[in-house]
Amino acid sequence: MLFRKLMQAALLSVAAVQTAALAIGSSPNLVIKPYKREALQDIVTWDAQSLFVRGERVYFFSGEFHPFRLPVPSLWLDVFQKIKALGYNGVSFYVDWALLEGKPGVFNASGVFDFEPFFDAASTAGIYLLARPGPYINAEVSGGGFPGWLQRLPALLRTRDPLYEHATDNYAANIGAIIAKAQITNGGPVILVQPENEYTGATSSVPEFPDAEYFAYVENQLRSAGIVVPFISNDASPKGYFAPGPPAQPAAVDIYGYDGYPLGFDCANPQTWPDNALPTYYGALHLNQSSSTPNSIVEFQGGSFDPWGGLGFAQCLELLSPEFERVFYKNDFSQGVHIFNIYMTYGGTNWGNLGHPGGYTSYDYGAVIAEDRDVAREKYSEMKLEANFIQASPAFLTAIAQNNSNANGSYTGNSALAVTVLLGNVTNFFVIRHAAYNSLANTEYTITLPTSQGNITIPQLGGTLSLYGRDSKFHVTDYDVGGINLLYSTAEIFTWKQYGNKRVLVVYGGPGEEHELAISGGGQATVTEGSGVQIGDKNHATIINYNVSSERAVVELDCGLTVYLLDRGSAYDYWVVDLPNDPVSGNQTNQTYFPSTPIVKAGYLLRTVEVAEGCIHLTGDLNSTTDIEVISGAPAQTTELTFNGASLPFKQNTSTGVVTATATYTDCPPFTLPDLSTIGWNVLDSLPEIQAGYDDSLWTTADLTYSNNTIRNLTTPVSLYASDYGYNTGSLLYRGHFTATGSETTFYLATQGGSAFGHSVWLNSTFVGSFYGGDKYLSWNDTYTLPSKLTAGQDYVFTILIDNMGLDEDWTVGSETMKNPRGVLDYSLSGENSKSDISWKLTGNLHGEDYEDKTRGPLNEGGLYAERQGYHLPGAPTAETSSSGTCAAGPVDGLSAAGVNFYTTTFELDMPVGYDIPLSFAFANVTKPANTTGGVPAYRCQIYVNGWQFGKYVHNIGPQDVSHSILLILLMLMPLLADIYLFRNQSFPVPEGIFDYHGSNYVAVSLWSLEAGGASVSDLSLVAGAVIQSGYGSVGLAPMTGWERRAGAY
């Protein structure tokens, strides 16, 4: 025991001399350093510790959200409000170049691609923005954000190659001007801009890497467009590239940042936390690389992508759990990270072919906000606790992270525990975790902490503290609560507020834990609610010790402080949403107003809070009847309390000022969803190309005897790379004409379409064979036996259908992987003299880069006949086409041979007003093989809703489907649970605004059977998710341009 105390004293002494904390109001750096000119602006500045906005220190606590993955602008505010409600004050967003310049030189940022509504929504919610326009973004999007036409650019991408740099000029000028207009200097929400993205790794073909000349070019493009806010970088790992140092590097950004994904993307093993995966080196490395700027993590892991054939995002959610957030994020905070962005916070959907081939339609990511915008995940609530603590702790911004090389055993004398420390002028922060961060042990401990009253061993009133496995906590000393000194607390702080001469502090602990806090000069303490609280007094400090339980305890002290003692689960129900502030700061967090913001217990979601003229106005969402309690910040004589505009009967405690009421969840009126198995569908053949007499004269002739694609040399007489002809997205079709010699017996074919792609081949109208696909196959070659002897002198045609799964990303500079071609790579026909004996035509989406549908952008539709005709668009005359018929169950009826059918139906929705009810399509995956080979039936589907492609399903690969056997059981026993199961288990959510919830909806489904015996969808249902009574208001429709006869369609 003596040794332990001596060791603790020594460590405390060392820590005291290490710290050199800064004053909260210390002068910021006013100059944007890389540019030899006057300061570009003085609104957003920084020093070594943090950002400043208008001279006030700001912790930029941000979540990643991509507007292009939610193409309903009227829902962007919904997501922003849910992020703001977390306690975040920032959002980072990528811009996908491929969606904005589908044709070289033609930039289109209108409709759902218009950024002004996005910026307006951010300002309304009180969110600062970090803009990340690339031009390369990665982001699990097709081509990493590069438009497909770059495949034929004979230049080395992401380098100083003038051809590449000039190819980016039009995009950079246009998007730069859009972002510049939205900067805070112009009254907008943008305070940071990131040039390039994860420019961190290169092949040996780029010897100048990291190339300051190239990086400066990207920076100057944006500065020339009017960007004046600071530039921030994001090394994929902390390499120090282009850091301002000291010493400053050439082409240095203003603020150096880096990324971290410490658990990787192994969702198949969600309980595995590998040894030594916790990055404890960030703080020391930052001091070596960029000590002049805040420690900035521009992407830290908030979830994981999931590949074709993966196990689904439910497992990613389990891997990147609330426990992950507690251990890994607090580890980041303990190293002085003061700019922090979590990737992703809302993932959204890879609609309309925008995703890369390594992922499927859902981009849920296991993020805190689900793809359907639900916020019921526990990790959402955990992040609310952590972010609110950071925002309520201005001293954290100037506390200095200490060297943590001696963290194990420090302050506790228990080598099984590690304590990392940030020391301030007054307030100190201590983060405790297990030394083996992935330990599952429950470890008891006491801790000796330095305070203004000297070293104190805690708990003082007896008992022990405890740390459960895969957990981490903040302990604080000399923490300011509106002028009252919290001498120490082992319970974690959610927030505190000051209103008049009253202060309210909310703390919490994990279930079954013991915690203790002490208040200097607290005076007499009275337990006014709850039990299990022990009160003591030592050296004029009031000590509160409590055992955590689901029963709330409240302690009032003579000094004017009220302490709420909660368990973590109860703390999840509390909210702090900034009040509207002054005309300058708008709804942004402002420390002048922050201490008086109400603390509200409100259940599922609180969106906005406003206190005006004695009234409290709340908006929020309910999933059940909820007790409302305003525990701080209510007017002394509150005259009205409203929730979603309706006045609520309330009571106000005349002593404490606490306001209580009940917000009643009104049962949702009944609504009806169509039964897709009986609704009736029009069906048409979407592969007329295999019928005798089909005319392909309007198709593109493959006549290029060269390709500018620099990654693969041609092995065919003419290029058959789709992008060489402007076809960059969706299904691809080839027709190869030849005159038979009569000796042909086999056909060799090599194709490439990216992970999980497939192809099918016909000779005239006879099916030859298919490649069914697999997640590990990016390309495929096979030799097919022709079905019968060919007649010499007779003309024949091969028809090849290829599923293009998107273009590969280009993460490693010099790899040129984005240029991996799509389409036919090679072929040979036995019995022919040369490959030139076959002449080729090809098509993809109608008119390629001169794409027809400017509303939904350049990627939304592919090359299927129905797509080229625009039959996926509302109002299409599918019932009138010559090849159409009708069937009751649509794709469930299926087709009897290899080919493609296109099913369309129209139905009305009349969903209840005032409720957020997400709708989703769900495929059931039959476990019993139904094909002739004994394997899983091979078929592929696309789902279009009012013209928007919102689902791409590969039945034999998955994972975006549900277990048919489980579904049948639930349907028999608990139909409501069956709907929820369908919705949550990798279904295809389609948001309101794409669906018209109060009108007519046009739905189309393509079904491609890759098997000779045909295929039918085992089950396709439209199901509802959780029914949330919402105060958000009405949702406007995305643009719904309908069908018109397309000139030149074939």
TrEMBL record:
A single MF term (Gene Ontology): beta-galactosidase activity
| Record keywords | Glycoprotein, Glycosidase, Hydrolase, Signal
| Keyword Hydrolase found | yes
Q: Does the keyword Metal-binding apply?
A: no
Q: Which residues form the Beta-galactosidase domain?
A: 398-574
One of the Pfam families matching this protein, by short name: BetaGal_ABD2
Q: Which residues form the signal peptide?
A: 1-21
Q: Which GO terms describe its biological process?
A: carbohydrate metabolic process
Top-rank taxon: Eukaryota
Q: What's the catalysed reaction?
A: Hydrolysis of terminal non-reducing beta-D-galactose residues in beta-D-galactosides
Which EC numbers does the record give?
A: 3.2.1.23
Q: What class of enzyme is it?
A: hydrolase
Q: Which family does it belong to?
A: Belongs to the glycosyl hydrolase 35 family.
Q: What is this protein called?
A: Beta-galactosidase
UniProt organism field: Friedmanniomyces simplex
